[in-house]
Each structure stands twice: as C-alpha cells, then as structure tokens.
Amino acid sequence: MSEEIRIDFGGLKRVHASIETARSALTELSLTLPEGETRSEALSEFRSRVEDLRNIVVKYENLLWKDSVKLLEAGQSLVEEDSAMARMYSEELSKSLYGHK
C-alpha cells in the first residue's frame, strides 16, 4: 500500500503572500536619520548600527523569499511527477485490460 503525498498549496500560497507583504514593507521602510545639527559623538555609531540592522533584515527577507519560491517549486514538481505517474499507470492498466498498444 502506498502513501499519498499531499501538499497544502493554499497554505504555501498564504506563506508566500505573507513573505511578499513583508518584503514590500521592508522595501518601503527607511532606516535613516535626518541630517541635522548635533553634538552627539554617538550619532555616527548609531547610524552605522542602523545600516547593519537594515542589511540583516534585507538578508533575512531574501532568504525567506528564496525558501518560499523553492517550496512552491518543489510542490509543483511533486504534482507534475504524480500526474505523469498516474498517466503512465493508466496507460499500462488500459493496455492490460483492453489489450491496446
């Protein structure tokens, strides 16, 4: 007895859409400070850390996006392989039952 592999495409699409929403929000997010007069010696360090944070967030977003795309591709590939196997099985069964070549 074989086991059936099921893929929740609706769930994958929801995850994909959620990541796309987050990606779009990050694109619109501006992690910058306005230029202005200040005597703070920590301002340049703070700006550097804000830029580091922005880079980390963008890297994380890119990884999530790639994972989402790979999950969708893997799921689609399984469906296509399953359909091909079902067609082959159907053709073989038809040949054995009806003697068609």
Walk me through this protein's architecture.
This protein has helices at residues 9-28, 43-98. With 101 residues, the chain is an all-alpha fold. Helix 1 (9-28) packs antiparallel against helix 2. The longest helix has 56 residues, at 43-98. The chain is rod-shaped, with a radius of gyration of 26 Å. The mean pLDDT is 76.
Structural class call reads mainly alpha
What are the low-pLDDT stretches, counting only 5+ consecutive residues below 50?
Answer: none
Q: Strand-and-helix sequence, N→C?
A: HH
The coarse silhouette is rod-shaped
Question: What fraction strand?
Answer: under 5%
Radius of gyration: 26 Å
* Residue share in helix: over 70%
**How far do the termini sit from each other?**
28 Å
Number of DSSP helical runs: 2
Number of strands: 0
- Average pLDDT taken over every residue: 76
**How does the major sheet shape up?**
none
Strand and helix map with partners:
Elements: H1 9-28, H2 43-98
In short:
This protein is mostly helical and 101 residues long. The chain has two helices and no strands.
